[in-house]
Design brief:
Layout: E1 4-5, H1 19-28, E2 33-36, H2 45-55, E3 58-69, E4 72-79, H3 86-96, H4 99-112, H5 118-123, H6 134-143, H7 150-156, H8 173-182, E5 186-189, H9 199-212, E6 216-221, H10 226-239, E7 242-246
Parallel strand pairs: 1-2, 2-3, 5-6, 6-7
Antiparallel strand pairs: 3-4, 4-5
Helix pairs in contact: 1-2, 3-8
Length: 278
């Protein structure tokens, strides 16, 4: 059985490693088919594709689009997208455009809480200034000694009700699916177990996503706990979704699961790659 890892991030968005370094790590970790899915950006795909080809690693171009649904941020992964597609590129550019203002508002809140210079500090960790995010602020807070690690950051800062939390109005679910489909890709709900929805809201999300042309959800992911693997396998069966698998790797020492280290998909689901020619 081939090892598919269809969700990870480079320093083009909020990861630590460059796309070529990620490709090398994926190959060394036993990954056979690898996708780069940076947040709202496809600028790392050319480097990733070339590096993967040089290593004999099968590559899937991808993206992870931030959306707002029912007042919460949800992520939609696109797999096998054409990164040159003008509809996708225009949509991603609009999604990125609000990040700087949001980041400055986050820094203002942190300054009011006694943590100065957070915008400049976070920016130093952002390989792409257009994609400055909470993860970059988290790295700054750790290196300043404010927090010990990423989990402690997100217990005390940058989440709703805590200093540094600023909501962002992202794309809509419909837009994200339309952009992915326009680029020839497959739309996947990323780490569905991570969202704070009740059963009724989850049903509405899954139903709307399916009706819009979304076809898969992540079942095995580094953002799920092991007990959620079977839960979301059952969700995939219930709604007729294909199942995806990906580590959601951001960097050594930061991610719960390394590239390629997840268990296989349950036999009860149909893999998102079941009809791919790779």
């Amino acid at each position: 059985m081939r090892n598919f890892d269809l969700h990870c991030h480079s320093n083009v968005s909020d990861g630590v490693l460059a796309p070529a370094s990620l490709a090398a790590r994926a190959k060394a970790r036993g990954v056979d088919v690898w996708a780069l899915t940076d947040h709202d950006e496809v600028g790392g795909i050319a480097e990733a594709r070339a590096a993967a080809a040089s290593l004999g690693l099968s590559f899937v171009p991808g993206v992870e689009i931030s959306i707002t649904w029912a007042g919460q941020t949800v992520h939609i992964v696109g797999l096998h997208v054409d990164e040159r597609n003008p509809v996708l590129l225009a949509g991603l550019a609009r999604t990125r455009s609000g990040r700087e203002l949001r980041a400055r508002e986050m820094a203002d809140q942190l300054a009011a809480a006694g943590i100065p210079d957070a915008y400049e500090g976070a920016l130093a960790y952002a390989g792409n200034p257009d994609l400055i995010s909470r993860t970059h602020f988290a790295r700054y807070l750790i290196d300043r000694g404010v927090c010990r690690d990423v989990p402690s950051v997100f217990r005390n800062y940058l989440i709703e009700g805590k200093p540094g939390y600023v909501p962002h109005r992202w794309a809509t679910l419909q837009q994200s699916v339309e952009w992915i489909r326009a680029a020839g890709g497959t739309a996947v709900i990323a780490h569905p177990g991570r969202y704070n929805f009740d059963a009724m809201a989850y049903d509405a999300l899954f139903s709307e996503f399916r009706d819009l042309g979304g076809t898969a959800i992540e079942v095995i992911t580094g953002s799920h706990t092991p007990d959620q693997y079977d839960e979301y396998a059952r969700v995939a069966q219930r709604y007729g979704f294909l199942a995806s698998r990906g580590s959601d790797f951001h960097g050594p020492g930061e991610s719960r699961v390394d590239l390629g280290a997840l268990p296989p998909l349950p036999s009860s689901v149909t893999p998102v790659w079941h009809d791919w020619v790779i």
